[in-house]
Amino acid sequence: MSRTRIGTRDRRTDATLKVTGAAQYTADIRLPGMLHAKVLRSPHAHARLVSVDSVKARALPGVHAVLTRDDLDGLDPTYGYFIKDQPIVALDRVRYAGDVVAAVAAESEAVALHALELIEVTYEPLPAVPDIEAALAPDAPELFEQAPPGIVPPYGTGASGQLRPRPNVCYEFRYGTGPDSVWDDCDHVFEDSFTFSRMNHFHLEPFVTVADVRGEEIEIWTSTQNPFPLRKELARVLRTPESRIHVHVPYVGGGFGSKHNCKTEPIAILLSRAAGRPVRYCLTTEEGFLTLSQHAAVLKVRTGVMADGTFVARESEVLLDAGAYSDGSPLVAEKACYRMPGPYRWQHIRSSSSCVMTTTTPAGPFRGFGATQATWASESQVDMIAERLGMDPYELRMKNLKRLGEPFVPGESGIDSDLAEGLDAVADALGYRGRERVPRRGMGLAIGFKDGGGVNKPAQARVKITATGSVYVSSGTVEIGQGASTSLCQVAAEVLGTDLERVRYAPVDTDVTPYDQGTNASSGMTVMGTAVLRAAQDARSKVLTFAAGQLGCDPAELTLQDWTVRRGEDTPVPLPGLVARVFGGTGYEFHGEGFFKAPLSSDAPLESPCLFWEIGWAGAEVEVDPDTGKVTVLQLVASGDVGRAVNKLLCRGQDEGAAVMGLAQAMFEEMRYEDGALLNGEALDYRVPMAEDLPERFVSITQEQGHGPGPFGAKGAGEGAMVPVAAAVANAVQDATGARVTTLPLTPERVFDALQALPRERTQLR
Fold first, then answer.
1. What's the pLDDT tens digit per position in 120-155?
2. Which chain regions cross the lipid bilayer (predicted)?
């Protein structure tokens, strides 16, 4: 595997385009005669929609189309993942401040905004339910009086789901294994509650779609992570065959989980259909805050242990703030519930996760979704238990960690990382063991743990080789900045024995690109990577079979390198000449097909065994100011196990970017609400990490333990290093002060209050 230097620091194949500004994103698309769309949003958190009068707006010069609830006849006007509850534009009521009521397509954005001012809307305000507590109150108004259509997917042993188990809960997932009787044997039982903050995805490229509807044909360019499921959902909503919908996906400027399913697409399409011209619908940064967010959560954890620190039983309840519509909340509920046990050995597990509807921005998939919430609670409580037992948190973890190959739960796949080895790597880099205590300073460790690769996720790929040896890799994995277009080309180049410079990643176009379920769950290198590997192997086999026929030998006698074939020690034979001899000057192309999907199993709780486990380890050293509660992170060490790095530079970038997002959640980043109103929903007010926020010492360790199921032993990366950071920082604060903060982020006010709440005999910083 020396030809393409698998695992070396190869530069990205898209680097030049991106650094020179030549790369084309959906926001750059311009079509002749293109109109511009803007939407009218509700000022109310919750209100009945009495009337919408758009007559004046439609008459405004320059306006070509207006969309309200009166224009949705003949459609299935709501969409979602498991639950179809979010309308294209508001139907009977609005459910959060920012809910879309109407849309306009005009010659310019200025004209469209003017037209919105002419739309007359009558609202009948209803009581808001701004948070989880309010939504679950006995007298809380229901956001959906009638149940929207929805499904519960099949589950395996120990897992179950339920639609609308109680008012304002759209979905609940449960998992359990092991006897309840073990609680009676526990020496200690600890119960703790934690609050997880809500972040905005804050991707650089906004939500944007350009739609061009001509007759029955619908063509869109859109910033999405899952073009094929999007096409399917649009076909259902629009009641049109999928073959009529043509989805292009240029480069995507970040998504972090937000760019799944319908976002800007339905409105752009319907306005284009009505206007008979292309329509560009691009949200502002501020509108992004009103479109999708991460889930805030309240987590309750009950853990039974023995006096020597042996873990026995864990039960947990996760309440996710789903916002006004379900979006991907049921999926997040599955993962948050399933990952609550963490990477530890238990005799008994019981977990539940509920999606609670509130009158706030809808919540959906977010980097590490479910695992970030679960790990915050789980890893924080591990240190709290260690403190109560008088044990070192590192030793407590080592005592209870699952071993390499040990099943996560009955029916599930085995752990494919040496968890202790990874923890030692981070502890050593941090200087955790053998350190001298320094007043006001402390260190903390945490382990992030998530099943990776998606559930029952299929992927197809195609590799094409021209007569002159140029290679084209075609797959539905979207380049969203993570470097998939580079690494998948490296896989093909390695199999075909050619330079990476000769391999091109084909544009994603649902008319011709092989199917993929979506770019999510860190699945690009394991699921799609395996499909590309098999497609390249298939193409190579066809090339060698063709060459063997020309040379009068068996294909097994030939090797392929640099678009030549060699038989043993014979002189290499260039393939272009062989191809031309048979097919003439018109040439020929060799095609290889590849497919991968993990097998189904009714024994696996989530329908199919986990393809790989994405593990992240983090360590932090902090200094705490007792007078202000300010926390300064002096060191941050983050690590993930990638199995085998196809491109180390990409892996490092993914881990470091993830760790910085985790640090931001730990220290300051959150969407702040007051009585259901978003206070910081714009770029100037929403705090994201800057270069100056990096600790003085920031270390990332790309582990290659070699147990991955993907090409050359690879595993997925990009989420794991975010997951444990917040808990590691909070654990370090406890180590420094004895104070435990259970609500994110760790603002100076919260830390100061925790210091003030310490018993008098423990008020001195350690």
1. 999 999 999 999 999 999 999 999 999 999 999 999
2. none
Instruction: Return the H-helix or E-strand segment holding 233.
Output: helix 227-238
Q: How far is CA 157 from the centre of its chain?
A: 26
The C-alpha atoms of residue 544 and residue 552 are separated, in whole angstroms, by 12
Domains of the chain: 26-126+202-288 (3.90.1170.50), 369-454+611-762 (3.30.365.10), 457-596 (3.30.365.10)
Report field, pTM of the whole predicted structure over 0.85: yes
Alpha-carbon distances, residue 253 vs 207, 266, 482, 522, 574 (angstroms): 10, 21, 10, 17, 41
pLDDT tier, 762 (very low <50, low <70, confident <90, very high otherwise) = low
Q: One of 233, 286, 719, 749 is an active-site residue; which one?
A: 719
Measure CA 504 to chain center.
Answer: 26
Cα separation values, 151 from 84, 148, 266, Å: 9, 10, 22
Give the residue carrying structure tokens 């050359």: 712
CB 719 within 8 A of CB 658: yes
Q: Which two tokens stand for residue 308?
A: 């020597």
Checking if the pLDDT of 112 tops 50, the result is yes
Residue 207 has pLDDT above 70, yes or no: yes
7: left (phi over 0), alpha (psi -120 to 50) or beta: left
Closest CA to 359 of 47, 688, 36: 47
**Three state DSSP letters for 545-586:** HHHHHHHCCCHHHEEEECCEEEECCCCCEEHHHHHHHHHHHH
- The DSSP code for 25 is B
Task: Enumerate the β-bridge partners of residue 632.
Answer: 623
Among 315-319, 567-571, 679-683, 700-704, which stretch is predicted with the lowest mean pLDDT? 567-571
Q: Could you tell me which of 81, 74, 82, 119 has the C-alpha nearest to residue 100?
A: 119
* 419-430 vs 393-400: helix crossing angle, rounded to 10: 160
Question: Which sign, positive or negative, has the C-alpha torsion 222, 225, 226, 227?
Answer: positive
Is 719 annotated in the active site? yes
